[in-house]
Automatic annotation (TrEMBL):
<protein>
    <submittedName>
        <fullName>Siroheme synthase</fullName>
        <ecNumber>1.3.1.76</ecNumber>
    </submittedName>
</protein>
<dbReference type="GO" id="GO:0043115">
    <property type="term" value="F:precorrin-2 dehydrogenase activity"/>
</dbReference>
<keyword id="KW-0560">Oxidoreductase</keyword>
<dbReference type="GO" id="GO:0008168">
    <property type="term" value="F:methyltransferase activity"/>
</dbReference>
<dbReference type="InterPro" id="IPR035996">
    <property type="entry name" value="4pyrrol_Methylase_sf"/>
</dbReference>
<dbReference type="InterPro" id="IPR014777">
    <property type="entry name" value="4pyrrole_Mease_sub1"/>
</dbReference>
Length: 49
């Protein structure tokens, strides 16, 4: 799962405990991981499946 700080704890609690989790560091108004890098992470993770 690729996620950021905008994802609530309630949603995170639905994710399987053994799932891969990739934090991309976004929160409202602040982006420590550039969108292009997030896109590459999403593509890489999708290709693993």
């Amino acid at each position: 799962m690729v996620y950021d700080r905008l994802v609530s704890d309630d949603i995170m609690n639905l994710v399987r405990r053994d799932a891969d989790r990739v934090f991309v560091g976004k929160r409202a108004g602040y982006h420590c991981v550039p969108q292009e890098e997030i896109n590459q992470i999403l593509l890489r993770e999708a290709q693993k499946r």
